[in-house]
Specification:
Length: 276
């Protein structure tokens, strides 16, 4: 289809004058581009080009065409929850995701808050909130930490709704909880044996850097795969899927766990197969 400008010329070809129509002069004078950078969110580049052969002064349209960008709090809506990869067969519905950059600092804040809270307990991290994992702290029990975790919880819930075709996502009173595996100190808890969770879907959010521990990962016999997460990545899988926490042999591995109960929509969501 022919695309004509307001001046009547075809796009890119202006017969009005040697200097071009007003539309084409604007395109030459001001070039505004937007760049999405994973580490820093949305950035803008404004570049004013100059024509050395021009004998007249061109108008500055950069202010007129400046784009208004969302605030940091609004950027979560611009990060679509696309899986980093799908583990095993797509029918298993095991997905790995990445938190948006502006939420990552909250992970360190929550870990530090839980460490301070554990220091006030007689057994430290050894709370036995859950019989299998032993070293767990409910985020709601730590003053101010549930509020800090709310943006992360909202993002994970939104991801579950999109990827698992869920109408509603509910969590228990002890959710989320922070789980710690430790190969050092008096209370060693390095992993957990094969088990399944009593919930619809489980989300595991990595709160430790990969250089903080050796070993670890989540093993799924049905997928014949062990999933290892980097800082800020999170794993979602059906709760009834058998899995295990692989033992660490050195350091400390900390995750935030979310047991969820969902009500699915009638229509199902199909996801392109990308195996680990």
């Amino acid at each position: 289809m022919n695309d004509f400008n307001a001046c009547g010329c075809r796009r890119g070809l202006c017969r009005e004058a040697k200097s071009g129509c007003e539309h084409h002069r604007r395109l030459r004078d001001v070039e505004v581009r937007t760049v999405m950078r994973p580490s820093s969110g949305i950035a803008t580049i404004n570049q004013n080009s100059q024509n050395k052969n021009s004998s007249h002064t061109r108008k500055d349209y950069s202010k007129k065409y400046t784009t208004q960008y969302p605030t940091q709090a609004q950027r979560v809506h611009y990060h679509e929850p696309v899986p980093v990869c799908i583990i095993g067969h797509p029918s298993l519905k095991i997905y790995k995701f990445q938190l948006p950059p502006h939420l990552l600092h909250l992970l360190d804040h929550i870990v530090n808050g839980c460490d301070d809270y554990a220091a006030t307990l007689p057994g430290g991290w050894m709370t036995y909130l859950y019989s299998l994992t032993k070293q767990d702290i409910a985020v709601r029990d730590v003053p101010g930490m549930y509020k800090a975790a709310t943006p992360i919880i909202s993002y994970v819930k939104s991801t579950i709704k999109r990827m698992y075709n869920a109408e509603h996502v509910k969590i228990d009173k002890n959710q989320p909880h922070v789980l710690r595996y430790s190969a050092e100190g008096g209370c060693k808890h390095t992993g957990v044996e094969l088990h399944h969770d009593k919930c619809s879907l489980t989300a595991n959010i990595m709160m430790s850097r990969s250089n903080a521990y050796v070993g670890g990962g989540t093993y799924f016999p049905d997928a014949k795969a062990t999933v290892k997460l980097e800082f800020g990545e999170f794993l979602i899988h059906p709760g009834n899927l058998v899995h295990a926490g692989v033992d660490i042999i050195q350091g400390t591995r900390t995750l935030m766990i979310l047991f969820t109960h969902v009500e699915e929509r009638v229509e199902s969501r199909s996801v392109e197969n990308t195996t680990l």
